[in-house]
Write a structure and sequence with these properties.
mainly alpha; 4 domains; two-stranded antiparallel sheet; Centromere/kinetochore protein zw10-like protein
């Protein structure tokens, strides 16, 4: 723009200003006033020494000045160049930001929840605009809110979310009503001409729940619109509807309709009638303007109603799944007998399941299967398909959740491992039984039976392998071997201190084995089925005795004194170990083999040969000829008598 153009622009600019106002310096005055107002707001907000009423006066002035500036801007736009337009727009933008910030602060200070007093936990809704502003000031405030509704939506939504949680939910869940109080807590009567500045939850009401919800909405509309005396009341009600309606009906669905969703199809039609109550409330909101008529109702409730059959089916399935998840996380140590867990189960006619201990929550698992079984018998064909799928989902949850919830316990604690093993066996039996009742519809569940039983076996087997290694480790170490050799080599002149230490350490190793066996016995004896418990100890003790016998057979030289001392230790060990013996041929065989070795340690050559009896005696039943010969060579000196004895062992 050259000088002549600039002069022309200034002439046209001031000519327009004279047409709009008697003041030639309007723009400058407006900008100065806006700057002063902005400074006044910043200073007072920072110092927090401004009253609500004074604040309303400030932003009312700011609002009027802003409108004048915008009016000038709109009329000058055709004459102003880009620079002047940008400056005016920048001033407008800053003014708008300050205005919105002021609105937000004012709103937060005048609408909030608080306790009635310091000792009460009860929350009330405080609507302080009634005491902080005149009707005209409040109307100006509402105009600003409506002008900037997009920026203000989050604050309204937050307020109505609190209203849902603290006022609507008690109505829906507990049948409570809403009472209205003044600053001193005095209750007002239900008078349409009164404006109330506090709302709180009252005692249980006999009125219908949706009447109470409708009454709450009416009172809130009265508060926000000052009995509809505020300018643009209908527009404000529409804004409230935009911010609240979806949240409100989501709250109603979650806290009123969902808990009343029937568990059986025979009650479904009755529930549909209950759903009509929500549609009556929807009609009321349309009537007062919270929901525009052209939207044909609230989409949240309408979609829920249109798809209620699907919601009903999904809710049934979801309830079973949620119950299963919660049940599987209960305490595994709370035990009951398997017979009690299966008591009065309708799909188990002849209970042949072995008696052992299981977690109490397995009874709840059985009840879940029982309820699904009953639904499968009485439901429609479409719901039957969903129930069959739910059976599979419950089985999948057991396989996926239970090993990981108790993972640490079943890995480290043999008792917990045994309980988990039993729970799996019982679960497999429940699935197997329900399949028999609903053949062939539930045949797909057969795979879960093998999966669960395999999981039980594998987890228990891993634990037993760990316990077996731990048990053997007590005698498969250098300390035990060293003590054994030291005792075997003992002679009368052996240092007493060394001898005593060796005997102490050997007995300590043996006692560790016995103590560990006792711990396992305590963990298993009242938990596992008798047969499984017997097989478990058979495996553990057999492995241990095999290692123990091998340690003795490794001795190449045993003195007379050493043989006596070893025999004494074997007597002690055999006596204590007998308490854990199960009725198993393999285990008894190992125990007898150890006793026969003990016999050799304290017998003469003649007694050994006689007990061998040309391979037909008791000794020959448990030891091989090579094992007997090895012990003879270790115990007796090399002479003719030993040679003759060895010749007879074959």
């Amino acid at each position: 723009m050259d000088d002549s153009d600039s002069v022309l622009f200034e002439e046209e600019f001031f000519k327009l200003l004279k047409q709009l106002t008697t003041s030639d310096d309007l723009v400058e005055e407006l900008e100065d006033e806006i700057a002063d107002i902005r400074l006044e707001i910043d200073t007072n907000l920072k110092n927090r020494n401004i009253s609500n009423k004074e604040l309303q006066e400030i932003y009312s002035r700011l609002w009027n000045e802003k409108k004048n500036l915008v009016k000038c801007q709109d009329n000058l736009e055709q004459f102003a160049n880009a620079k002047e337009i940008a400056e005016i727009q920048q001033q407008h933008s800053k003014c708008k930001e300050k205005l919105i910030a002021t609105i937000e602060v004012t709103y937060k200070e005048n609408i909030y929840f608080s306790k009635i007093n310091d000792t009460s936990k009860e929350q009330v809704l405080r609507f302080a605009f009634l005491t902080s502003m005149s009707k005209e000031e409040y109307g100006s405030f509402i105009s600003c809110v409506l002008e900037h509704r997009e920026q203000f939506h989050p604050y309204l939504r937050n307020t109505f979310e609190q209203i849902d949680n603290l006022l609507v939910q008690p109505i829906l869940l507990e049948g409570r009503s809403i009472s209205y109080a003044d600053d001193e807590g005095n209750l007002y009567s239900d008078n349409q001409d009164l404006i109330f500045d506090k709302l709180k939850v009252s005692e249980t009401s006999e009125n219908k729940i949706f009447d109470n919800v409708q009454s709450l909405i009416e009172k809130l509309i009265q508060l926000f619109t000052m009995n509809r005396n505020v300018t643009n009341s209908l527009e404000l009600i529409g804004l409230i509807g935009q911010s609240w309606t979806d949240q409100l009906f989501s709250c109603i669905i979650k806290n009123y309709f969902e808990p009343r969703m029937p568990r059986v199809e025979s009650e479904f039609d009755q529930f549909v009638e209950v759903l009509q109550e929500g549609q009556l409330l929807e009609n009321f909101l349309i009537q007062i303007g919270m929901i525009p008529e052209e939207t044909n109702g609230n989409l949240v409730l309408r979609n829920y109603s249109d798809n209620i059959r699907e919601h009903f089916s999904a809710k049934i399935s979801q309830d079973f799944i949620i119950r299963t998840k919660r049940t599987l996380k209960l305490d595994q140590n709370d035990l009951i007998g398997s017979d009690f867990a299966l008591e009065n189960c309708p799909f188990i006619k002849n209970n042949k399941f072995p008696l052992f201990q299981v977690s109490r929550f397995m009874m709840e698992i059985r009840i879940i299967f029982e309820e699904m079984s009953q639904l499968l018998e009485t439901s429609s064909s479409n719901l039957k398909l969903l129930i069959v799928e739910t059976f599979g989902n419950v089985c999948e949850l057991f396989v996926d959740i239970s090993p990981f919830v108790f993972k640490l316990n079943i890995e480290l604690n043999p008792r917990q491992n045994a309980i988990f093993h039993n729970n799996c066996l019982l679960f497999g039996y429940i699935v197997e039984s329900v399949i028999q009742v609903h053949k062939p519809r539930l045949d797909l569940l057969k795979d879960y039976i093998s999966v669960v039983r395999s999981m039980a076996s594998q987890v228990f087997m891993n634990q037993m392998q760990h316990q077996e290694k731990l048990l053997v480790s007590f005698i498969a170490n250098d300390i035990f071997r060293g003590c054994l050799h030291t005792i075997a080599d003992e002679i009368p002149s052996t240092d007493l201190k060394i001898s005593s230490q060796s005997h102490f350490e050997l007995r300590q190793c043996i006692n560790q084995c016995l103590s560990h066996l006792n711990t396992l016995h305590s963990a298993f004896v009242d938990i596992l089925p008798e047969k499984i418990c017997g097989r478990t100890f058979n495996t553990l003790i057999t492995s241990f005795l095999t290692e123990f016998i091998q340690r003795i057979l490794e001795l190449n030289d045993i003195s007379s004194l050493g043989a006596s001392h070893l025999s004494h230790e074997l007597d002690y060990f055999s006596k204590e170990l007998k308490l854990f013996l199960a009725h198993s041929d393999s285990l008894v065989s190992k125990w007898m083999k150890m006793n026969e070795i003990n016999f050799i340690l304290k017998s003469s050559l003649l007694e050994i040969v006689n007990r061998w009896a040309d391979g037909k005696g008791l000794l020959a039943n448990y030891l091989t000829a090579e094992e007997v010969k090895h012990l003879i060579r270790a115990l007796f000196q090399n002479n003719d008598r030993r040679s003759n004895a060895l010749a007879k062992i074959k």
